[in-house]
Amino acid sequence: MITSPSSLRRSERSRRAILRASLDLCTERGYGRVTVEAIAARAGVSKKTIYRWWPSKGAVLLEAFADVLVDATPFVDTGDIGADLRAHVAGAVRVLSVPPFGPAYAGILSELHHDDTLARAVREQLVDPRVEEAVGRLRGAQDQGQIPPGANLPLAVEMLYGPVYYRHVLGKPVQDEETVAALVDHVLRALRAPGY
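Predicted structure:
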């Protein structure tokens, strides 16, 4: 006997189709030319379905981008904080350097300046959880004696991510492996400097 899929499965299938469609359209047209209407048509769903789950095209693309970024940049603990941070930052650079993810995130970042709902979503769904995870990984290194007690871990996270996003937003060439290694080494040296 053949049974129809549950509404939950249909919803997940639709969600994935919408996220894929938004990324495909961003690659083909650029962030600015993507519309909710076009996403709905490509995904084979109604606009109402999209608006039931997301308030805007930026929110759709944010979820699609966040899914990929989280998967590509885990916070692993091999016992070597330098190696772990180099791998993590290099993963972020790779995601930001390829369409559709880089252009999608650049579009989201430009739009959040005049969309308070999207700005809040970026902070709550992406930035704050990632910062919390990064601080947690640094705290683990601190507990292992690799980073001195009293080091400002949230500031260290900003120092790590700041150059990556600065280059991305300004359209500068992405960091290569050597530049990422130099960035991580510089931040770790700063954390170990006298006064921390």
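Summary: Residues 116-143 form the longest helix (28 residues).
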